[in-house]
Design goal:
Blueprint: E1 31-33, H1 41-64, H2 75-95, E2 99-101, E3 106-109, E4 125-128, H3 130-165, H4 175-206, H5 223-246, H6 265-287, H7 295-322, H8 326-351, H9 356-362, H10 371-392, H11 399-403, H12 430-447, H13 454-475
Antiparallel strand pairs: 1-2, 3-4
Family: Belongs to the palC family.
InterPro entries: BRO1_dom (IPR004328), BRO1_sf (IPR038499), pH-resp_palC (IPR037505)
Protein name: pH-response regulator protein palC
Length: 477
């Protein structure tokens, strides 16, 4: 009978986000250029086209099967990188009366996490304000980054066995590099979700009299869920960081004693326990939204927390066993064994009620999620029990004593703060500031010369030409 591998397989209870879709809109029908030089017409048209590109990419991604064809590429990210600066520019232009709205724009978006997705064939919600579209595209951006991480991590898992059998060419990313990319995507996604909770949603509320009270918003657009999504992305990143750390021990048989190259079991335990804490906190935030999030999502978060806690307890047992603390090792491993068995039973029972789409997105398979950890635990438990019975002769510690020895978790990754891009045009843009500086310089030089002199007239003419150049320069943006 072969020993279980030292490296857990991927994905680990991963949730693949269903990318949202949106309806069409024309900013030209809603916006009026109020600038003296009428420089924003082309920018308004470009913003409409850019948003249409985002809409098309989202639609194609949905048809293509999410991460497998659409979400697995960065077309959406590129499209959003083009649209977000234009959208922020429109928001700034309206706020500074450079552009006027003939009527409040209303954007149609399909929710991703709400329970009504399970019963309504074409659920859409109408969201008023440019700020609403900004929140929506940020959500799409973060979902896309998370799905890109899922694709990269899955690719790393499938190629790791090939990499061990044959060396890879210089043009092919190694499993380690793919996992690094996945961790980076998730850290960025966490930063975007955090920005939605901390900045985008409050800005939207501040732009409306009475805030967001009275709007029928999906749970995706609540601070609690945005904060939960930020924690989930960061916990996913830490999960992959653990997997990446264990790649160096991929060829280890999986039992005791651990080789010198193996990561410290105490470190692995703390990393897993931190993941369990983050997933648990995210589940608590999601549960606070009156049950409007898909039950499969809430259940998935509970399973993720439980799986990482099982691994954490196992590595605490291994750490004790490697240090010769036989009674503590057997105690922790026995505790982990019981948790793994309970998890396998609960997972098999609960997942039977999930839809086929949810099972696919959650990565549910016939193999129970506690089964893999259970095999490792059985191996270590047998070895350390034998060592304790023949060498250490220590009493097995009880649950109360063990709980007092469970350490706090340890963070291995950090969210990458999302910095909104500079507006593509209008107030806050580079060209707008240059034009403003040019106008100020012209007024200053004109005020210092005699307006009736010949030389003064020549300076005014030159100054007028300079202002015209700045206006033209701003128009291309």
């Amino acid at each position: 009978m072969s020993s279980p591998s030292s490296t857990p397989s991927l994905p680990l209870n991963w949730y693949e986000y269903e990318l949202p879709t949106t309806g069409a809109i024309s900013f030209g029908d809603l916006c009026t250029d109020m600038s003296a030089e009428k420089v924003y017409g082309r920018h308004i048209a470009a913003a409409t086209q850019s948003r249409a590109t985002v809409r098309g990419v989202l639609k194609e991604a949905r048809k293509a099967g999410q991460a497998e064809k659409g979400g697995g590429r960065d077309y959406l990210r590129v499209a959003l990188d083009d649209y977000i600066p234009r959208l922020r520019a429109l928001i700034q232009c309206v706020a500074h009366d450079e552009v006027a709205l003939t009527t409040e724009p209303v954007f149609s978006w399909r929710s991703t996490l709400s329970t009504h997705l399970l019963s309504t064939s074409s659920p859409r919600v109408s969201l008023p304000s440019l700020h609403a579209d900004y929140v929506s595209v940020l959500l799409s951006y973060a979902y896309a980054l998370s799905n890109l991480a899922w694709t990269s991590a899955s690719s790393a898992s499938s190629s790791s066995s090939q990499a061990s059998a044959a060396s890879q060419t210089s043009s092919t990313a190694t499993p380690d590099e793919k996992l690094t990319h996945a961790v980076t995507f998730l850290c960025r996604a966490s930063g975007v979700f955090a920005s939605i909770a901390g900045s985008a949603l409050p800005e939207w509320a501040g732009s409306r009299t009475g805030g967001l009270v009275g709007l029928a918003l999906p749970v995706d657009y609540t601070t609690e869920v945005a904060e939960a999504l930020a924690k989930i992305a960061l916990a996913d990143a830490q999960s992959l960081a653990i997997h990446k750390l264990l790649l160096r021990a991929a060829h280890h048989s999986g039992g005791a004693p651990l080789p010198k190259t193996h990561p410290a079991p105490a470190l692995l335990a703390k990393l897993h326990l931190e993941c369990a804490e983050m997933y648990g906190a995210a589940r608590g935030l999601v549960k606070s939204t009156s049950g409007e999030v898909k039950p499969a999502v809430r259940r998935n978060l509970g399973e993720r927390a439980a799986v990482h806690r099982v691994w954490g307890l196992m590595w605490l047992g291994v750490d004790a066993g490697e240090a010769g603390r036989g009674g503590e090792a057997v105690g922790f491993l026995g505790w982990a064994k019981g948790e793994a068995a309970s998890l396998s039973h609960v997972t098999a029972t609960a997942s039977s009620g999930d839809s086929a789409a949810d099972k696919k997105s959650l990565g549910i398979s016939k193999k129970t999620k506690g089964g893999e950890a259970g095999k490792r635990i059985d191996l270590f438990l047998g070895q350390y029990t034998k060592a304790n019975d023949t060498l250490y002769f220590e009493s097995v510690l009880g649950r109360k004593e063990l709980q007092a020895r469970v350490p706090a978790g340890r963070v291995a990754v950090a969210a990458k703060p999302y910095v909104p891009p500079t507006p593509g045009f209008g107030p806050g843009s580079v060209e707008f500031e240059r034009r403003q500086a040019g106008d100020a310089l012209h007024e200053s030089s004109g005020g210092g010369s005699g307006s009736g002199s010949g030389s003064g007239g020549g300076e005014n003419k030159a100054g007028g030409e300079e202002v015209g150049q700045y206006a033209g320069a701003g128009a291309y943006f």
